[in-house]
Amino acid sequence: MANEVQYIFNRQNLNKSEPQKYREEDLRKEEMVINIGPQHPSTHGVLRLEVIASGEEVVEVVPHLGYLHRCFEKHAENLPFNQTLPFVDRMDYLAAMNSEHAFAMGVERMMGIEDKIPKRVEYIRVVVAELNRLASHFVALGSYGMDIGAVTAFFWMVRDREHILRLLEWASGARMLYNYIWVGGLFYDLPVGFEERCKEFVAYLKPKLKEFEQVVMENKIFVDRTANVGVLPLDLAINYGITGPMLRGSGLKYDLRRADGYSVYPELDFEVPVGKGEVGQPGDCWDRTWVRVRECYESIRIIEQSLERLTGDLKRTRDFDPREMVPKKIRPKAQDLYVRAENPKGETGFFFRADGRSDIPFRCKARGASFTNLSIINELAKGSLIADLIAIFGSIDIVLGEVDR
Amino acid sequence: MEFAALTDHIKAKLGEDFLEGIDEQCSPKAIVVRPENLPELMDFLHADHQCYFDSLSCITGLDNGVEKGTMEVIYQLYSIPYNHHLTVKVSLGRAEPVIDSVTSVWKAADWHEREAFDLLGIHFNNHPDLRRILLPADWEGHPLRKDYQHQEYYRGIKVEY
Questions:
Q1: How many domains does chain B have?
Q2: What is each CA distance from A62 to A50, A52, B91, in whole angstroms?
Q3: Containing domain of residue B44, as a range?
Q4: I need a labelling partner for B36 at 20 to 30 A (CA). Which of A206, A367, A390, B93 fits?
Q5: C-alpha B62 chain-centroid distance
Q6: ipTM of the complex
């Protein structure tokens, strides 16, 4: 196979495999097709946007997905629940802990052991998930700045994200794809000294966030590029199934950590920030970004409170076993279940059908937040300028691993 | 609204035998409906002031295999103001799985239905833009069907890894 030519280019192939929705003869005289992606930094991965443009104005955007499709759902139908967990990591690879948490919670609910998980395990899950939420928001904020020309912010955010990745690497052994939260428990207890280091880090982080706000959010160029751009009305957002910071940016106080109150979130004190249109209209790109920044502060609060518990009444003990409740055999009763959780990007859901006879799900469907959020791009970008299309696209904050699964 | 109250409400408004059945094993609890009744039911669930399911979270397509000969489409509904959940299940014949689209009610259905069409070959009537979404347009077959056999070569590239 070494020197064999694997693919012979043929112009016809382009039309067959991934055809444009519009052909040249369908367009009006002043319109043209511009392809953005799949290899373009501002598409945040491998996504192709077929843009019908009339001069500088966007007439329609047709996203073409699937460049990163790895048949997650087909894999899940062939693997036991616990072996599917690493695949879940690879969906939203910027926030693997959060997806793991949702998946593990769903399987635990099917097994009926959800209430038996030790408190310390749940608090550790919350700490790592919120750390990962911070890391995911940092990428979102940093690369959004990069998209519209603020390079400094990207470096600062990646610098601070590195601390989080090192902390999580210390706990789990991996930088991004952790397989740390298991069905029924954790891979391992936190390493000795983690809580203290994490506290130091959180104290270090707060002024850095303030710095970010000053250099980006209050920056006149940034405000000019994002305020009143891509305004998403609330009713449209709900109809499109938009969730997460995008929906909150449009002014609805809706967070699944509060609405569903899963895990130990009801015991924790945090706010749900919403967009108010401080520099433009509610639901514009600036508001969505601002909600992400505020959420970082709230995540810090959650981490601080959880660490307080983890070093206080839920302190590590010699006989604490995070795998105590991990089932030997994961074979839930025959049932259907839909579970959802608040990921950094919105509602991540899993639909399971267990047949009661095997350890393998009969069907496992993943509802990616990015997938649903991306579907609104045409509605938002229609009629705007091509430069604004990039600003709008960046403010949606997608991860292609979750869009294409 | 509790599930029992909700089903009573639907029966009172749409007729006693409108629902094919209920499934309390499912979480969130589910109502089962015949495919021909789906558009009317979804319109009702979305517009009625006591139901007000304003958000469609997820659409799952599902193949029960050749022996059973059925496919299912499962809708996850949620009402943000009332904070209540509902699952709606529809069973289709496997030979010709056709169902009406709900994109006119929730725009969120657009891509989820395209995905079910792509991976399971379920056809949605009145869908504005029913194309494959994840796989290339000239891919053969629908991978999430239980009897799916992948093609040996795709454009001269071996599919088996």
A1: 1
A2: 5, 8, 32
A3: 3-134
A4: A367
A5: 9
A6: 0.91
- Say if B144 is an interface residue toward chain A (CB within 8 Å): yes
Question: Chain B interface, mutation test: which of A347, A351, A357, A396, most B Cβ atoms within 10 Å?
Answer: A351
Structure tokens, A122: 């749940």
Evaluate the omega torsion of the peptide bond into residue B28 and state whether it is cis, within 30 degrees of 0: yes
**pLDDT in the model for residue A16:** 60
Per-residue model confidence as pLDDT tens digits over A276-328? 888 888 889 999 999 999 999 999 999 999 999 989 888 888 888 888 888 88
DSSP readout, A28-80?
Answer: -TTEEEEEE-SSBGGGTBS-EEEEEEETTEEEEEEEE--TT---HHHHHTTS-
* Helix, strand, coil percent content, chain B, rounded in steps of 5: 25, 30, 45
Q: Which residue of B has its CA nearest to A400?
A: B134
Report the alpha-carbon distance of residue A332 to residue B71 in Å, rounded.
22
The residue among B111, B112, B161 with the most chain A CBs within 10 A of its CB, best to mutate, is B111
Cβ contact A369:A346 at 8 Å = yes
Which residues on B lie below 8 Å from A236 (Cβ)?
107
Query: What CATH number did the domain enclosing B42 receive?
Result: 3.30.460.80
- Does B155 fall in a domain? no
Residue B148 included in any domain:
no
* Contact check, Cβ <8 Å, A240/B107: yes
A243 three-class SS: coil
B101 found inside a domain: yes
Chain A environment of B80 (Cβ under 8 Å)? 238, 252, 254
Burial class (CB in 10 A: 0-12, 13-18, 19+), A242: buried
Q: Is the pLDDT of residue A137 over 60?
A: yes
Residue spans of the domains in chain A: they are 11-64, 72-404
Both tokens of B157, joined, read: 């590239």
Q: Establish if B77 belongs to a structural domain.
A: yes
pLDDT at B3 over 80: yes
- Among the partner-chain residues A74, A254, A335, the one whose CB lies closest to the CB of B25 is A335
Q: Which fold has domain A72-404?
A: Cytochrome-c3 Hydrogenase; chain B (1.10.645)
